[in-house]
Amino acid sequence: LRGLPFRAFLSFPNLELLAQLGNVCRHGEGRAANALWRSHPELWPSSARSANSDVPPPIEQMQISKELLARLVTAIAEFWQMVGYLYNESIDAKHWSLESKLCEQRLRHAAAVAHLNSVVACAGSDVP
């Protein structure tokens, strides 16, 4: 998004998990499932885990709670709301009605903007 790293969005951890789940759904057992197991073993019940923690349980035993699904849906909505907000902020000549709307949104998105700015600032410090 216009040079912003995906990790600059507060919803990134949940969106990254959603992307990993999508890869497992598309590709099944293998590299994608192994990566998901390493990053989110809590998706499998303890009864499904073997003594060898390096070997992931079958993906059929994975459990995705309603709470997790709700969290992922919220992350998608928050991401797109933030994208819309950033787009509106980037408009040079804003109509007064947009400016009024942005005043409200600045308060609502203050934590997300602070996070985004800190990630972008850190990323910029790595650039020579």
Structure description:
The chain is 62% helix and 0% strand. The chain is mostly helical and 128 residues long. Helix 1 packs antiparallel against helix 2 (31-39) and helix 1 crosses helix 3.
Range of helix content: 55-70%
Number of helices: 5
Give the oligomeric state of the chains in this entry, treating copies of one chain as homo and distinct chains as hetero: single chain
| Rg for CA atoms | 19 Å
Q: Which shape, going by the Cα principal axes?
A: elongated
User: What's the average pLDDT?
Assistant: 87
| Major β-sheet annotation | none
Total strands: 0
Weakly predicted, low-confidence segments: none
Q: Give the helices and strands as they follow along the chain.
A: HHHHH
Structural class computed from helices and strand pairing: mainly alpha
Instruction: Kindly report how far apart the N and C termini lie.
Output: 22 Å
Strand portion: under 5%
Key phrases:
single chain, 128 residues, mainly alpha
Q: What is the compact description of this entry?
A:
62% of the residues lie in helices and 0% in strands.
